[in-house]
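Batch 3, record 17
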Amino acid sequence: MDFLGILQILDSSLRLATPLLLACLAGLFSERAGIFDIGLEGKMLASAFMSAAVASFTGDVWLGLMAGILASLLLALIHGVASITFRGNQLISGVAINFLASGLTVVIGEAWFALGGRTPQLSGGARFQEITLPFANAARDVPIVGPIYANLLSGHSILVYVALLLVPLSWWVLFRTRFGLRLRAVGENPAAVDTAGVSVVGLRYAAVMICGVLCGIAGAYLATALSAGFVKEMSAGRGFIALAALIFAKWRPWYALGATLLFGLLEALGNRFQSLDLFGIPIPTQFMQALPYILTVVILAGFVGKAIPPRAGGEPYVKER
Amino acid sequence: MTLNKTLMGAVATLALTAGMAAAQDATPGLIIDLGGKFDKSFNESAYNGAQRWVEETGGEYAETELANEAQREQTMRRMAERGANPVVVLGFANGSTLDVVAPDYPDTDFVIVDMVVEQPNVKSVVFSEHEGSYLVGMMAAMASETGTVSFIGGMDVPLISKFACGYAQGAKAVNPDAEVIVNMTGTTPSAWNDPVKGAELTRSQISQGSDVVFAAAGGTGIGVLQAAADADILSIGVDSNQNYLHPGEVLTSMVKRVDNAVYDAFSAAAAGELETGITVMGLDNEGVGFAMDENNAELVSEEMVAAVEEAKAQIIAGEIEVHDFTSDSSCPAY
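Prediction for the assembled complex:
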């Protein structure tokens, strides 16, 4: 394995980690405000479908992105109404959203395109193209740093950079702004926030909506950047892996980056080395492909130390009378 | 209690309608498998065969589409009980289910594509995918400039290894030093519908030097062909003719005439002469082959066609024997 090979694997990890990272940050905002959200998967799927559908109608990927975010926001709103306003069970609402997205995308897709729930192939301006960072080609010949810049950092779609920038932004919003402090407080002790005269319901809705926007970007990335069109169930469990990464990351933005990159790396390794000889012992494909899931179980079994969720997570807030 | 009554009522009505339907003239039935009717590949080919039969004969047929793995038996039984005859099921995954269901409906004929089920009322249609794959493997090796070609399969099952093995043998027949990278998308049925992973595997293979990639992966293949077109390398489609998906970027398609299998079954049944047993669709009866049309005319040189046609004739004549992976679960070429 040479240097370039390693870079290619890292490159692939970054691509694969991006949807996980976006979904993980989405979950982070929601859960920090005390709203558990296992509907990340469904929101991603709905957004993937709408972004691909609108991009294929209009030929403009940015309109597609907007439509994807709107679809995801709509589902987020349903989750908000069910679990904040009507104080329903957040897990059940999340499961319902997953089922809803899984069924609706196929039904609507069949009605619009008659392609068995698939959207037409996108091309040209209807997809996010890979962008080359400035000086990438010039820097290629610089030893070590050059290839890292040109091969690893450059040449991704713009959403990858957006996702990476969202990590420091999320950290700043959550830990350095008044809004972030209140949002975290709502997840720990909503009664205290309420006593201070700040609306618990408003903050929680804000968090759920931010979650919707981020899931929307994640879904649009799947359908219009990583692939060229929507295929049924294309989120393929990434929303759930993102949830696992969120717990692994202990609900912190920078840790979320690390966790999702690790999952991306494992998936990339599984793709690249389908049959691996490790010191003469052949490792079967199935093991390599199961690795992310095995890791999830090992990590969640307490390997990372104690992961303490926001204290008021999962509990609807009832104002005292 | 009321619920119970309603349920019983529904069951009774169902049984009644089923009995009535069986008394009518039998219409053929087609059960589309999990990839979906418009997978641009295996299932779509079957659907097109049925449509061709409808257009030519003006007949009618019943059609359902599976939504998940658990519906196989239920759907097969319902189709048989509604009086469809023959019932055509697609894909190896139906094998064990059909083996159980078929004896319960001795008056109904079943046709299964891609699998052998040994029951007196089942017609098993299998294809010589290894022979067709051998031919496209030859074309891949001839078109490759790097000497490395690759294969992406859907679910890791012997049938897909049969494609891979034929492909590798064909590539090595042209260029003994050719390197063939073989990857499978996954080990569960979701591997047929994961274009994101298919595209990622393709990029991984390209980074390992491959410049022709053959996808035998259902809906996942769409992602493979897309990634190949994005990277300006050649790809090879499967089952249906997929050359049109990216004109000028798809070298050819290994077509598997599932449409003919369905069409033949429907026509034979209409004439009352459907024969059960095993039918092998190979190069000799145009069951498999490679697709040529205006979309790939510029990619395929005359020498390539000549070489492949010669090999085809030799395979039919028995001079070249292409190893079938499913015969002993091993492949001499990789």
